[in-house]
Amino acid sequence: MSATITLLIADDQALVRGALAALLNLEPDLAVVAEVGRGDEVLAAVREHRPQVALLDVEMPGMDGIAVAEQLRRECPDCRILMVTTFGRPGYLRRAIDAGASGFVVKDTPARELADAVRRVHMGLRAVDPTLATETLATGSSPLTAREREVLRAASGGAATGVIARTLHLSEGTVRNHLSSAIGKTGTTTRAEAVKAAERLGWL
Hints:
- It is a single chain.
- The protein has 204 residues and is of the alpha/beta class.
- Helix content is 52%, strand content 14%.
- Strand 5, helix 5 and strand 6 form a beta-alpha-beta unit.
- It starts with a strand and ends with a helix.
């Protein structure tokens, strides 16, 4: 039997986190050594428990999974990263891989396939949901700049232009320009539609 692969699971939903841990612990060569519910708790837990693979959700409080992946790549490069998320969006996949993740699967992946994905990532190989990989190739890279993404995120709650400007320390004209550019790039007609389109594609 091969040596046991140690795992950390980061997911803000306790039931999902527990279910993933229970399923993976059934595998004779896998052992979950840490569980956290916030993105900003991952680094400390990795440093304490030294898991070989971290399974990260994308959307978590404190810090999102893609930002966590970037942090781990810098601070704990020996820990491999597998994104396991409800949101199988093309833009998320590309951003996660760019951030340092070796794999990306959705939460309804069968248990055996998830375990195999963990093993592949541990070996230094890629493990990517094939349907999502195809969609990502078809969709292409996000055309939004970092500032346009920031402005769209700030606009997602329906805040007025002036509020967004003050929050991001920009002029109202600059905010309007970024919103206009984002609307054009998403092929929409309003900022609300632009936010929805960018979220659907995983560009935010």
